[in-house]
Amino acid sequence: MTARLIVVYEAPSDPEAFDRHYNDVHLPLAHRLPGLRSYTVGRNAVPLRDNRPYYLIGELTWDSMDDLRTAFDSPEGLAAAEDAAELRKYATTRSMVYEATETVATAG
C-alpha cells in the first residue's frame, strides 16, 4: 500500500507565470520532501463529465500515510505547502490524499 497526494490545477490566469513558478520554485521544493518516492506531472488532462479545463495534475507518492504526514510536518513540507499558496494566485486547485493498493488485471 502507498499513500498519494493528487493536486489538480485548473487553467491559470497567466500560464507563463504559473509554469515558471511551478517549474523553477515549486517542483524543486517538492522534490526535497522527505520520503517522497515519485512525483508525476500530467498535462493535457481532459475531464470526462465536466467542462472545466484542467491545466496540470501533480501526483506524489510515499510508502505510507505516516510517511506522507511526516513529509508535510517537516521544514521542507511546510515550505512546499506555503509555496502552494503562491500557485493558487494563478489557478484554482483541488487536492486529496489517499491510500492506494495495486490490483493486477488478468486476461480473461
TrEMBL record:
Coiled coil: none
Annotated organism of origin: Kitasatospora viridis
Domain of life from the UniProt record: Bacteria
Classification via InterPro entries: Dimeric_a/b-barrel, EthD_dom
GO MF annotation terms: oxidoreductase activity
Protein name in the entry: Uncharacterized protein (TIGR02118 family)
Stretches assigned to the EthD domain: 14-86
Alphabetical list of NCBIfam families matching this protein: EthD family reductase (TIGR02118)
